[in-house]
Amino acid sequence: MLSCALWPPLCTSLGKQYNYIRKLKDHEKNLQKELKLLKGRGNDIEEELNKGWQQHGKKPKEVVKVWLHNSQELVKEIEGMDTENQNSMCLRRLCPNCYSRLKQSKRIEKLISNVKGLLADGQFSDGLFDSSLPVEILPATDIQGSTAERKMVEILQCIRDPEVSKIGVYGMGGVGKTTIMTNIHNQLKETGEFDIVIWVTVSRSPNLGQVQDMIAKELGCNLSETCRENTLYSAFRRRKNFLIFFDDMWDNICLEEVGIPEPNKENGSTIVWTTRSNKVCNKMESQRDIKVECLHEEEAWSLFKEKVGGENVISPEIEPTARKVAKECGGLPLALITVGRALRKTNQLEVWRSALEELKSASNYGIEDMETKVFQRLKFSYDRLSNDEVRECFLYCALYPEDYLIPTNALIQHWMAEGLIGEVGSWEKEKDKGHSILKELKDACMIESTANEFDEDCVRMHDLIRDLAISITKKPARFMVKAGLWLEESPKEEEWVESLERVSLMQSKIETLHGEPNCPQLLTLFLQHNRCLNNVSETFFKYMDNLRVLNLSYTNIESLPDALSELTSLHGLLLGFCSRLKCLPSLAKLHKLRVLDLFGVPLEEVPHGLENLVKLKHLDISDGERLRSFPSGILSKLTNLEHLLMGGSGWRWPYSNEDDKDKATVAEIISLENLTELSADFSDVTSFNSYSESGRWEHLEKSYFGIGRSDHFGARVLRSHEMCLVDCDFKSVSASGVKLPSIIQSLKIIDCNAMEWIDECGEIGFPNLQRLELRRLLNFQGLCKQKAQQEAFRNLEELYVSDCHRLKLLIPYDLLPDNLQNLKIINVKRCRGMKEIISCDTGLDTIILPKLEKLFMDDLPMLTSVFSGKLVCDFLSVVNGIRCPNLKKLPFSPALKEILCTEEWWNTLEWEDDPHLKQRLQPFVNHPWWIT
C-alpha cells in the first residue's frame, strides 16, 4: 500500500502524461504550423542565395550552408513521421494504445522546439553572404583539339611548379591563347589553389591607371589619387599568394609601378600572360615561354565540321572541296570557326567551290566576317611591327609560294640586295641586322622557324599570314604574286601595271618572257625555279630602269638579252644553277651591283666588265668547272669584296704568272683586305702556303681551301673552315709541306693514291679539326704511323672512311687516351682489307668512347672485330652492320634505338656479357629490302 506522501507527486505525473495523450492532435497542428514557417524561411533563404550568386557571384557563409542542411534534414524527419502516423491511424482507431500516443506526443513537442530553435537561428542579422569577393567565372568556349589540350596541361603544370613564377604564352592572333587561358583561369578559380586569382585584359595601348583599377576591383580595395601602387602592394601582401593573368599584352608592364609584388617561390605567387610577341616574354623576364601552335590537320577538320553542321551538311560530294577549304584556314581556330559558321548548313557544291576560290585568291574576302574577325586581328600584328623597314621585309616573304621553306640566308641576301636593310658598313653587319629583323618577325609570330631537307635554317609563312601580306599590297597594286602556280604563260602585258614594285613568277612552266612590261617602279623580279624558261626577249627589261633584284636561278636560259647591261640600278643578279648559261652580256655599267651569284654556271671566261663592279661584296662563281683563266688586275679593283667563292670553278690559283703575265695569282686574293669568306682551289702546295703564310686566313669566318683537281669539289654554302686535298701525290699530310691553318675544322682527302698516313712522324696536330673524310686512298694504311702528338685529334667528331682497301686497323689504341674522346660518328665503307675498327696490342680489356652516337659499317668483308675487349659507349644509339659477314660479336651493351642489318647477320650476332640483350633489342632491328 502506497504511503500518503507519494500520492500528490504521482497524481501530478499522471496528469502530465494524460495531457500529452489528450493534446496529441493540438501538438500535431502546432508542428505543421511551425513546419510551414520553417519551409518558408528555407525557401526565402535559398531564393536570396540563388539571386546573389546569379547576379553578383556571391557565395553563402558556411553557417548559412549548415543551417540549410539542418533545416532540410529536420523537414525530412517531420514529413517522414507524418507518413508513419498515417500508416498507424487505422490501428489506433481499432485498438487505441495510450503508450504510443504518449510517446508520439512527446516526440512532436521536441520537434516543435527544434523547429522554433532553427527559426530563431535563421534570422542571420549579419547577412547570408561571405564577405570575401565573389568567384567570377569568365565566359569560355571549349578547348578544341588534343594539341590545345596538351598545351593547357603544359601551362597548368608550369603554374603549379613552385620553381616557376613568370610564364609567357605566345602565338599568332586567333590561335586560341585566350580560350586556353580562360579555361585555366576558371579551373584555378574553383579549386582555390591560390588565395586570389585575377584576370586583367590589357588594352593594345595599356594605361597604368586602368590596369591598377582592374586589379583594385578584384582585390576589393579603394585607390586614392596618390600612392595607388602602395595601396595595391599592401593589399597583395595581405594575401597568402596570388595568380594574375594578363591577357593580350603588346608591351611589358612594370610590376613595381603597378603595385604588384615580384612573384617568387617564397610568396608562392605566379604571373602568366598571353601575347602575340615573344619579345614581350623577354621584356617581362619570363621563366617559361610556351608557344600555342595551330591545330593539326585532322583536329582542324573536326572543328571545321562541327561549325559547318556536321556530316549531314558535308556530303561525300562536298567533302573533298570542304577539306580544301578547311586546309586553307591553316589550322587557325579563329579562321576555321569564322569560315565554318559562314558556310553553316550550306549544301551546294557551287557555293563551296566559290568559297575555296575566295580563300585561295587572298583577295577581298566575300566570306562573311572573314575581313572583320580574322584579317583585322592579324593585321594589327603587322601594324605593331617596329617600323616600315620591318614591315617591308615581312611583305617581301609573300613573294615565295605557299608553304615554301625560305632559306634564311637567301632571304636576308635578297633584303640586302634590294636595299631594305640600309647599308651599315660590312656585309656581316647588314646580315646581322637582317637576323635581327627576322627575330622580330618570329617573335611577333608573323613567320616561324623551320629547316629544309638539308638541315638549312629556313622560315615559313602561315597561309593566312601570307594572304594578309598579299592583301596589304593590293591597293594600289604593289605586288604581283603568282608564285607556285606553275603558270605556262607569262602574265599578260596589262597585268604589268606601272605601280608594281615586286613580281614573283617563281615555280612556273613559262618558256619565254616576251613583250615590253611598263614597270618603272619595279624593284624585285623573281623568276627562279622555272625549269622551262629558256628565252628572255630583247625588250623584256626595257622599261625596268629601277630594277634592283633579278633572280633567274634554276632556269634553263642559254643566254640573256643585251638589255640586261642597261639595268644600272641592279644590286643583285642571281643566276645560280643555270647550267646551260655559258656567257653573260657585259656587266660594265652595273656599278651598283653588290651580289653576283653564278654558282654552277659553266662559264668559260670571266664576265666582261667584272672589274667595274666596285661595290661588289659577294661574288660566287663556284662549281662551274669550266673556267680556265682569270685575268690579272680584276680582283685588286674589287676592294669592297667580302665573299669570294670560286671552289670548283675550274680555276686553280697559281703562285706566280711567269708563264703568262696576264694570269692572276694568289697574291690578288691576299690583297683583298675585307674578305671574310673564301672558297678557292690552289694549283700546288707552294701557292696554298703563300696564302697560309700571309695570315689572311685569320680574318676568315668561313673558308674552303682546295689543292689539286678543282672539278672534284665545290662549296656552295660554307658552314665552317674546310680543306680538301684531291689527286695529290703526298705520302702523308705531315710530309706534304702543306702548312695547314689552325682554323681548319674539316679535312677531306680524296683520290690521293700515294697517301699512306695522315701523320707519319707524330709531329702535326689538328687542334680544331671536327670532321675527317678519307675517300679512295688506295695505299692508305692508318691515321698515324707513330704515336700521335698529344691531343692531335682532340676535337674530332666525325670520322668517314671509304674505299681504302689496304687499311686493316682504323683506330690504334694509343690515339684514344688523349684523342678521339669527342668522337660522335664512325662511318666505314667499302674497305676490303679492314679487320678491326679499334686495335689494341696491350691486351687492355676496356676502352671508353664517351660521346660515340653512331657506328656505320658497310661492305667490310674481312672485318672480324670492332674491338677485342669491351667498348664502353653509353650514348651509342645507331649501329649499321651491312655486308660484314665475319663480324659475329659486338663489344658493347648500349641502349640502341636503331639497328640496320641483314636478317642473316642479326641471327648470327652474339653478346657475351648479356645473353638477353639481343631479345631486348629485337624491336629496334630493321632489315631493309635493299640490303643484300
Automatic annotation (TrEMBL):
Annotated ranges, domain Disease resistance protein winged helix: 399-469
Keyword annotations from UniProtKB, A to Z: ATP-binding, Coiled coil, Leucine-rich repeat, Nucleotide-binding, Plant defense, Repeat
Gene Ontology annotations of biological process type: defense response to bacterium; innate immune response-activating signaling pathway; plant-type hypersensitive response
Domain (NB-ARC): residue spans on this chain: 157-310
One annotated GO molecular function: ATP binding
Ranges for domain Disease resistance R13L4/SHOC-2-like LRR: 505-834
Coiled coil: 21-48
Region forming the signal peptide: none
InterPro entries from the UniProt entry: Apaf_helical (IPR042197), Leu-rich_rpt (IPR001611), Leu-rich_rpt_typical-subtyp (IPR003591), LRR_dom_sf (IPR032675), LRR_R13L4/SHOC2-like (IPR055414), NB-ARC (IPR002182), P-loop_NTPase (IPR027417), Plant_NBS-LRR (IPR050905)
Pfam families linked to this entry: LRR_14, NB-ARC, WHD_DRP
UniProt family annotation: Belongs to the disease resistance NB-LRR family.
Name of the protein described by the UniProt record: NB-ARC domain-containing protein
Organism: Dioscorea zingiberensis
